Amino acid sequence: MDPALIKSSFSAVQPHGTDVTAYFYDHLFEHHPEVRGLFAEHLDEQRDRLWAALGAVVSNLEDTPTLVGMLQNLGRRHAGYGALPAHYPAVGASLIATLEHFAGDAWTPEVEASWAAAYAVISSTMIDAAAAAGDPIPVG
Would you say residue 114 lies in a domain? Predict the structure, then answer.
C-alpha cells in the first residue's frame, strides 16, 4: 500500500463530490442486490457518511493509531447494522470500480493495487473489531 498513490488518486476523485457516493451505491446495488436491505431507502445521509469516512481514512493513512481506532469503531457500528464479513468483498469491488471511474488518468495498475491493499486492511480491521465485540452494537 502506497499512501502517496492513494492520496493523489483520491485528490483526483474529490472534485466529483456526491457523484462519487451516488455512483458507488448504484454500482453496489446493481452488482450485489442482496445488500440493498442493509440500507435505508433514502441514502442522502449515508452518502455523506461514506464520503466523510473515505476522506478520514485517506487523511489518516499514516496515523496508524487514529486510523485503527476509527476503523474498529466503524466495524462495530456496521455489525450493528447487520453487515457480515461476507458483505465486505462486494463493498470493496464497488469502491474500486467507483474510484477507477472517477480518477481518470490518475488511475493506474499501481494505484489499483494500492487501493486494494488498503481496502484489505480496512475490511479486516473492521471485521476483526466486529468479531471481538461479540454482540453487535445496538443501532439507534
Answer: yes
pLDDT tens digits along 94-126: 999 999 999 999 999 999 999 999 999 999 999
Q: With 60 as the cut, is the pLDDT of residue 136 above it?
A: no
Q: Could you tell me where the DSSP H helices lie in 1-140? A: 3-13, 18-31, 44-59, 64-80, 88-103, 109-133
Q: Residue 138: inside a domain, yes or no?
A: no
97 closest CA partner among 30, 34, 46: 30
Does pTM top 0.70 for this prediction? yes
Return the DSSP state at 41: S
Q: What's CA 2's distance to the chain center, in Å?
A: 17
Does residue 64 form part of some domain?
Answer: yes
Residue 135: its pLDDT value, please?
A: 55
The answer for residues whose C-beta is within 8 angstroms of residue 111's C-beta and 6 or more apart is: 5, 6, 8, 9, 103
Q: Are 8 and 99 in contact (CB under 8 A)?
A: no
